[in-house]
């Protein structure tokens, strides 16, 4: 059974940083691409960053050069380092994996950027 658990969210001032983690279990973690999504109130869930099993990464234009996705296959964990945070980054952030076109999600972690 696939299980994803996010952690690391919280309240941060504009310009600040946060680091999110997502621990995966029930899968052969190193065999899969991993994704971070976010959903702000009233908006659709959007892809923020993705990392392939080989370590290549892609980012939404809105977070490029500010966010960094990484993975530690030994720990079955994917990370999202978020720098220079803006109020518009406020959202619930979700870890995601697609297996045979089926989406699996964590419970999400709230990130609030506010002064």
* Count of helical regions: 0
The average pLDDT value, as a whole number, equals 97
3D shape: globular
Termini Cα gap:
40 Å
Can you give me a brief rundown of this structure?
The chain is mainly beta and 115 residues long. The protein has strands spanning 3-7, 10-12, 18-25, 34-39, 46-51, 57-59, 67-72, 77-82, 91-99, 102-105, 109-113.
List keywords for this structure.
mainly beta, single chain, four-stranded antiparallel beta sheet, 115 residues
Q: What order do the helices and strands come in, and which of them pair?
A:
Blueprint: E1 3-7, E2 10-12, E3 18-25, E4 34-39, E5 46-51, E6 57-59, E7 67-72, E8 77-82, E9 91-99, E10 102-105, E11 109-113
Parallel strand pairs: 2-11
Antiparallel strand pairs: 1-3, 3-8, 4-5, 4-9, 5-6, 7-8, 9-10, 9-11
What can you see in these coordinates?
The protein is globular and about 40 Å long. By secondary structure, it is mainly beta. It starts with a strand and ends with a strand. It has strands spanning 3-7, 10-12, 18-25, 34-39, 46-51, 57-59, 67-72, 77-82, 91-99, 102-105, 109-113. The relative contact order is 0.32. A hairpin with a 2-residue loop joins strand 9 (91-99) and strand 10. Helices cover 0% and strands 53% of the residues.
